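Q: Hi! First time doing this. I have a protein sequence and I read that you can turn it into a structure. Is that right? Here it is:
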Amino acid sequence: MTRPEPRYDDHGWPSPPDPGDLSRRVAQRRAELHLSQAQVAARAGLSLRYLEYLERYPARPAPAGPVVVPVNFAVLADTIVVRTAEGTVIDGHTDEQVALEVDHIDEALCLGWSVLVRGPAHRVAHPAELRRLQEDAAVWPWPSGEREVYVRIVPCEITGRRIELRPAP
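A: Yes, that's right. Below is the predicted 3D structure, encoded as structure tokens:
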């Protein structure tokens, strides 16, 4: 006969803390403002228990439908190359139609532009093509960790617009 594992009980929580990025940011900002959890909860109109949860456990949303994520990319052979990790949202949308938007604002000239590319995304699997991308596509993602999945977007539709600030009348 085996005994059941003891329940984790740190103020009634069923498991030890495992803060994610959002959890750490909420706790860090609260500390920067020198506020207690009770003060932040009151100001935000949240229950204290919910704020404790936000600071203790990571947000792990399961995206369904269109998703927007920031990426670094390179243009190579009239296609767009994105580098990501195994099992990410980007990796999960290969072999689907995707959209990539790139924007730029030049505050000094009061100009900007926005370009939207749509087309199928394909995970690069052929060893020769993968080697070529690793050598020629300078894509360096900001997040740390292994990022050895290359995704190629083949543009089928490209639209865009230029934005100019006009002086007030």
